[in-house]
Amino acid sequence: MPPAIQNPRFLLSQCRLPFHFTPAPLQLPPNPSLRRQLHRSAASALSSDPQTISRDPKSPYPSLPSPPSSQILSIRESLLSRQRTAADIADEYLDRLRRTEPQIRSFLHVSETVMREAEEVDRLVESGAALGPLAGVLIGVKDNICTADMPSTGGSKILEGYRPAFDATAVRMLKEAGAIVIGKTNMDEFGMGSTTEGSGFQVTANPWDISRVPGGSSGGSAAAVSAKQCVVSLGSDTGGSVRQPASFCGVVGLKPTYGRVSRYGLMAYASSLDVIGCFGSSVIDTAIILNAVSGHDRFDATSSTHEVPEYASCLISIDDLDSKPLKGLRVGMIRETIGDGVDMGVVSSIKDSALHLEELGAIVTEVSLPSFSLGLPAYYILASSEASSNLSRYDGVRYGNQATADELNYLYGDSRAEGFGPEVKMRILMGTYALSAGYYDAYYKRAQQVRTLVRKSFKDALDKNDILISPAAPSPAYKIGEKVNDPLAMYAGDIMTVNVNLAGVPALVAPCGFVEGGIAGLPVGLQMIASAFNEDKLLRVGHIFEQTLQNFKFVPPLLTE
Amino acid sequence: MMALICHRGTFANSLFLSKSALFTRSSSSLIHTLQALRTRVSPRAESTTSTLKEELIQPTTKRAVEQNIHGYEAIIGIETHVQLSTLTKAFCSCPYLYGSQPNTTICPICMGHPGTLPVLNSKVVDFAVKLGLALNCKMSMTSKFDRKQYFYPDLPKGYQISQFDIPIATNGFIDLDLPVEFGGGHRRFGITRVHMEEDAGKLLHSETGSYSQVDLNRAGVPLLEIVSEPDMRSGLEAAEYAAEIQRLVRYIGISNGNMQEGSLRCDVNVSVRPIGQLKFGTKVEIKNMNSFSAMNRAIDYEISRQVLLHSQGQSEQIVQETRLWEDGAQKTFTMRKKEGLADYRYFPEPDLPEVVLTKDYVDKIRRSLPELPEAKRRRYEELGLTMQDVLFLANDNHVAEFFDTTIENGADAKLAANWIMSDIAAFLKNERLSINEVKLTPFELSELIASIKNGTISGKIGKEILIELLSKGGTVKSLIEEKDLIQIVDPTVIEALVDKVLAANPKQLQQYRGGKTKLQGFFAGQVMKESKGKANPLVLNKILIEKLKGDN
Ligand SMILES: [Zn+2]
């Protein structure tokens, strides 16, 4: 059961300081503008007076761009104050979804019951009954996460029309918290890809520039949040599939610690690396979603029994901190991620972010992860090996598309040949090869040894630093079609993220700047990495970073046209 | 047509496969198991290139084997699959009940639906540790699961969750005594390993053979695979090994060990080599034996077949293959030739954490183990029972338990054994019951034995009471009272009876006194009849003789 956030005010009282550095004594911040910004976000979330929180959503150009605020908390406020109905809010999102979907194409399926579910929320509001913490929040769910009442294909033709018999644990928890699943988002087939061009059904466009990809494999979920087709969304991250599209689409993306969120109901790609993550337009929103879906699940033996802190509760009252809210925070910038082969604009955005963190009081140093470059090949061997096994069940015998065949071998062969796309076939072949007798030691076993090295190097670096930072991708969003015929270049694009999965640690990507491209520039995300189960630390740093980042507003031109 | 029953809203495909077409590409490793199924359905001896005359191989009696294999030695190793009697399957919460309607004990997890994950039933580990300890194995304090990968319609995930390089138990042994009627003897056979794994479903072939259907009830049922060292030398030893495994799993309560239901399945590897040769001969695997006697016969047949080939200088005709035992033909037939080793691409199962045992846990299970068959047999021997008795009593854990409780109540071991092995065993056989299904309790058996021993009732009455106790229950005491069965030992009562009989038969008495002393038996019978069988025969005869002599 997710902890109930019945009343946003409750969040304040729960606040505590997760850092192990000593917070500065309470004092008046010398920088009034910083103070005002911080205060505003806190106040807007907490005020019982609806007037103070009702910033006009239709005026995206305030004199100075305001930092992103929690959409979830503002929906909650609107409902509790009876300013807006859930049906109203659902209607607004559905309307925007319909308008933008022809260009973005982020959804494989849009729920037909959204309005009905929203009206149900309104009836609850009317009755004065307690509302779940996510009541009326419209959430997009990546198509490889099972939903009982909607098709779940994993982006693959082999599961076209397949409807699971059950909700994934994460989906069940979201529903129990009151969320409304708005639809299933597009993805690279079974998570194998970095552009969402690998979907068996359609190509999703980046809301910042529709000639570009949204990243992948959770491209649909990232684009949908960026284009405000939904409030928040679930993705999955095996080698960067949440973080890289978050960076490409200018939204916040969180990859939790392996085991933090149950994988039950997530179609397995690489079981030892897969984790369900989430997207939001603010750090608070990802924190609230993480809170809702975290925890041990008796249906997933690899889910952790580690305690689930109140992730969202510490993010509100940062106005209680001084002008150096990150004072003493040790930040390691990973040297290997800002060198050759990384887009200059991306590098300078990350370096600017480092400066910004320093201004907030952090101590930024460069750290080296010697095994960093080994991570990419090791990742592709391990992920492909596990995938070759995990995808064996798609044989056309029990569910999914079955080829017409009168001989067993053809039934298997044809069902899989027709059902799987080329990238999936390639990875099954690679993985089958790596696990074959005579090759196992040279590939799979070797890759496991590299994984151990990577884990150790992260541990060493995170013993000396509170967080590590790096780009989330070596470049901004690619052009659609740019990497289709160059799989190695596409794989190389995962260099920033795969090591984190090998190490199993959490990482948060928050928009940090822009590089040239498109009409309004292309967003760049900052990846922040912490030790296992230190999501609270990441979210707190990310929140402060986001709330104090000035002169940037991450609303795609599509929405302001 | 039987549709595959799936969970709510799940898309279900029935599996229609043309069986005749299935084998058109039989060289592919993917379908090797399917050939097995076909052979099982319609056994057909493969046209072997061998010139071996099958008729030369005699039906296998012990003597025939000994004659045939003169100068050769058979090497036999056995892989045994034990289906565990846990309430739920290994990795989901479905029950398993043998004989259920197809596809009624299934769920998304054991059907391998997308997104589902296995969660280990801790009972499986309990049972594995029990068996590992009972087989005197070294326990792996940390073991892990691996995936064994192959495609077959009865394997929903495309891989079987098993244990590969680190099984939960290794390096043990099992002790047994061969039956007295086969010459007896004690044997110790090595156990290579015990590992945990899941069972697959079953294919059901249509009568016309034009399609097959999948029943996943059995998919995910926990198994323990026991691999023996190649220590057996004859069909008898192999069958006795399997019987001892069955006894053991029943004793420790982890399986019903039923071979007909497939709860205990043995695959046997047989090779033959000239005595004195160090190198093993080519190994042949035999499957499809669903009784111990079938195992015995199948192995002896196979040994004879291989020895014959050796002795005819055709040992190259012995190839690595799997052969099926056909009970009807009393022969083994080629099922499939092995074309190199199958590559199952084992790798560690990422969905399951390592299985970590603590010393405390293992010790606790060790302490909870009952007395095992070998220990029981040695104890019974010390009680002075014959080996025949020992083997009979220890064979069935319920019988052994009954016997043990009976003697704990003070009954004489030899008498208790006799009662159990004769009258009780005969009753059980007649009524097709097992000893724990009858109304007789061990306590009452001990009472019965005591009552006879102290002269309260006669042995004859004891046998009558026993039948009553077995079928209707009750206590020895109440039956004796109720039916007034107490033996008459009072001489005055018996004297009165004798007087009565003598008075009623004056003619016979006269004949007796006239020298026809044979009539004593007649009078004794009459008195006994008059006493309703309760007169103590010793007292009766003593008084009768006195009276007949006519002292008064
Ligand atoms: Zn099940």
UniProtKB/TrEMBL annotation, chain A:
GO terms for biological process: glutaminyl-tRNAGln biosynthesis via transamidation; mitochondrial translation. Residues 59-68 have a biased composition (Pro residues). Keywords: ATP-binding, Chloroplast, Ligase, Mitochondrion, Nucleotide-binding, Plastid, Protein biosynthesis. It is found in: Mitochondrion; Plastid, Chloroplast stroma. One of its GO terms (cellular component) is glutamyl-tRNA(Gln) amidotransferase complex. It catalyses: L-glutamyl-tRNA(Gln) + L-glutamine + ATP + H2O = L-glutaminyl-tRNA(Gln) + L-glutamate + ADP + phosphate + H(+). Its EC number is 6.3.5.7. Residues 89-539 form the Amidase domain. Residues 44-54 have a biased composition (Polar residues). This protein may be expected to contain an N-terminal transit peptide but none has been predicted. Subunit of the heterotrimeric GatCAB amidotransferase (AdT) complex, composed of A, B and C subunits. Allows the formation of correctly charged Gln-tRNA(Gln) through the transamidation of misacylated Glu-tRNA(Gln) in chloroplasts and mitochondria. The reaction takes place in the presence of glutamine and ATP through an activated gamma-phospho-Glu-tRNA(Gln). Belongs to the amidase family. GatA subfamily. This is Glutamyl-tRNA(Gln) amidotransferase subunit A, chloroplastic/mitochondrial. The gene is GATA.
TrEMBL record, chain B:
GO terms for biological process: glutaminyl-tRNAGln biosynthesis via transamidation; mitochondrial translation. This is Glutamyl-tRNA(Gln) amidotransferase subunit B, chloroplastic/mitochondrial. Signal peptide: none annotated. SUPFAM superfamilies: GatB/YqeY motif, Glutamine synthetase/guanido kinase. InterPro entries: Asn/Gln-tRNA_amidoTrfase_suB/E, Asn/Gln-tRNA_Trfase_suB/E_cat, Asn/Gln_amidotransferase, Asn/Gln_tRNA_amidoTrase-B-like, GatB, GatB_C_1, GatB_Yqey_C_2, Gln-tRNA_amidoTrfase_suB_CS. It is an enzyme of class 6 (ligase). Coiled coil: none annotated. The keyword Oxidoreductase does not apply. It holds the Pfam family GatB_N. GO terms for cellular component: chloroplast; glutamyl-tRNA(Gln) amidotransferase complex; mitochondrion. The gene is GATB. The keyword Membrane does not apply. Its EC number is 6.3.5.-. Its main location: mitochondrion. HAMAP family: GatB. The lineage of its organism: Eukaryota, Viridiplantae, Streptophyta, Embryophyta, Tracheophyta. It is found in: Mitochondrion; Plastid, Chloroplast. Allows the formation of correctly charged Gln-tRNA(Gln) through the transamidation of misacylated Glu-tRNA(Gln) in chloroplasts and mitochondria. The reaction takes place in the presence of glutamine and ATP through an activated gamma-phospho-Glu-tRNA(Gln). Allows the formation of correctly charged Asn-tRNA(Asn) or Gln-tRNA(Gln) through the transamidation of misacylated Asp-tRNA(Asn) or Glu-tRNA(Gln) in organisms which lack either or both of asparaginyl-tRNA or glutaminyl-tRNA synthetases. The reaction takes place in the presence of glutamine and ATP through an activated phospho-Asp-tRNA(Asn) or phospho-Glu-tRNA(Gln). Keywords: ATP-binding, Chloroplast, Ligase, Mitochondrion, Nucleotide-binding, Plastid, Protein biosynthesis. It catalyses: L-glutamyl-tRNA(Gln) + L-glutamine + ATP + H2O = L-glutaminyl-tRNA(Gln) + L-glutamate + ADP + phosphate + H(+); L-aspartyl-tRNA(Asn) + L-glutamine + ATP + H2O = L-asparaginyl-tRNA(Asn) + L-glutamate + ADP + phosphate + 2 H(+).
